[in-house]
Write a structure and sequence with these properties.
It contains 16 helices and 12 strands. It is of the alpha/beta class. The chain folds into 2 domains: 1-137, Nucleotidyltransferase, domain 5 (2-Layer Sandwich), CATH 3.30.420.40; 186-377, Nucleotidyltransferase, domain 5 (2-Layer Sandwich). A 6-stranded mixed sheet has the order 3-2-1-4-6-5, with helices on both faces. Bound molecules: adenosine-5'-diphosphate.
């Protein structure tokens, strides 16, 4: 009994290694209590003090120590690593060993920016912490997509040979939010058909039947689907050849335009939704059009998912924009009354429209519940990590 009590008081360290950043959080999965969190940026960049991820971990230790958290004295239970791409290999969290690291590395062609960074972070952390390490994949929740949803209409051999298919991303968030929505509604997740809209810097939508993902808007890479802060989302695939032949852009330049210079930024000059909203209020035409395109594309996916699910119990908004922009939530619902989708203006605006707790924002008795449910990817990763090492 004492062992069990001790075990559940022990924190998990969650690490999210990006190409030039390392986000960390030290938390107890059972209670959600966070004892430390932070981010180290500009790793490996010119003029930065932090040369690589191993150095970043030393910086993290030192920062924590100066905040009064001595990592050597903390009875760490495990380290949970966010890994963006699990490819066709990983459909669940896994305990990390050398073979797993090699497999994650071998998936780098599918996520050239993300997976090498994750591997560097994992290797550095394994050197620092002699506890079990677990990899939690952003793609895993979408490994249940049926073949008709996950398969692109490409030559079979080509697709199979190179593992080209729809993988989906933000899965940890979609899974967490769909379960939290079930708790909010006091109903088993198995009974609910949900559409989850994760709207942050990156944006994705998913259709979830009974807790199982059947569709999502992102694809082989996180570029497909909704309009995002700096990513275009859906474009005509013929655009790539057009940009190469007519504009003379290289593959790398096309990649940069679509990933870093498009979306809200490309349309309006700003990628931060708060600034976009200010410009909309000021009557900036480009900002108004950017907002309208963002909502138009969102409706497009909601409509498609209504058709795929047949019956929808809940439409759920989450992440920075989803939790904080009453304007986006109202705009999505506008004109959908005939489909049973309505947002109560007062509920939507509660607390200035910014939600840090889950809440229903549709009117009482609506056929479709519209809700705001905060995501918490670190907590979700910590819980999955703890489940695996228990
Ligand atoms: P990430 O994908 O980096 O995790 P977040 O989920 O933190 O992103 O979302 C970031 C987005 O949320 C930004 O576009 C930001 O402007 C937007 N956002 C944050 N707070 C607000 C707010 N109060 N109103 C509108 N948008 C907000």
């Amino acid at each position: 009994m004492n062992d069990l009590l001790d075990q559940t008081a022990r924190p998990v360290l969650v690490l999210n290694a990006g190409s030039s950043s390392l986000k960390y959080q030290l938390l107890v999965p059972e209670t959600g209590e966070v004892s430390a969190s932070g981010v180290i940026e500009r790793i490996g960049e010119a003029g930065s003090d932090v040369a690589d991820h191993a150095a970043a971990l030393r910086t993290m230790r030192a920062t924590l120590a100066s905040d009064g958290v001595d990592l050597d004295a903390v009875p760490l239970r495990a380290v949970g690593h966010r890994v963006v791409h699990g490819g066709p290999d990983f459909s669940e969290p896994v305990l990390i060993d050398d073979a797993v690291v090699a497999r994650i590395e071998s998936l780098s062609p599918l996520a050239p920016l993300h997976n090498p960074a994750a591997v560097t972070g994992i290797e550095a952390a394994r050197g620092h912490f002699a506890v079990p390490h677990v990899a939690v994949f952003d793609t895993a929740f979408f490994s249940t997509l049926p073949p008709e949803a996950s398969t692109y209409a490409l030559p079979r051999d080509l697709a199979q040979q190179h593992s080209i298919r729809r993988y989906g991303f933000h899965g940890t968030s979609h899974r967490f939010v769909s379960q939290a929505t079930a708790e909010l509604l006091g109903r088993p997740v198995e009974e609910l058909n949900q559409i989850v809209l994760h709207l942050g810097n990156g944006c994705s939508a998913s259709a979830i039947r009974g807790g199982v993902a059947i569709e999502t808007s992102m694809g082989l890479t996180p570029l497909q689907g909704l309009v995002m802060g700096t990513r275009s989302g859906d474009v005509d695939p013929g655009l790539h050849a057009f940009l190469a032949r007519q504009v003379g852009l290289s593959i790398d330049e096309i990649d940069t335009v679509l990933n870093k210079q498009s979306g809200l930024l490309g349309l309006s000059g700003v990628n931060d939704f708060r600034e976009l909203a200010q410009r909309v209020d000021a009557g900036d035409e480009a900002a108004v059009l950017a907002f309208d395109i963002f909502v138009h594309r969102l409706k497009h996916y909601v409509g498609a998912y209504l058709a795929h699910l047949g019956r929808v119990d809940a439409i759920v908004f989450t992440a920075g924009v989803g939790q904080n922009s009453a304007r986006v939530r109202a705009a999505l619902a506008d004109g959908l009354e005939g489909l049973g989708i309505r947002v109560d203006p007062e509920r939507n605006e509660t607390g200035g429209g910014c939600f840090s707790n889950a809440a229903v924002i549709s009117p009482e008795g609506s056929p479709v519940v519209v809700a705001v449910v905060p995501t918490n990817e670190e907590l979700a990763i910590a819980r999955q990590t703890a489940d695996l090492v228990r």
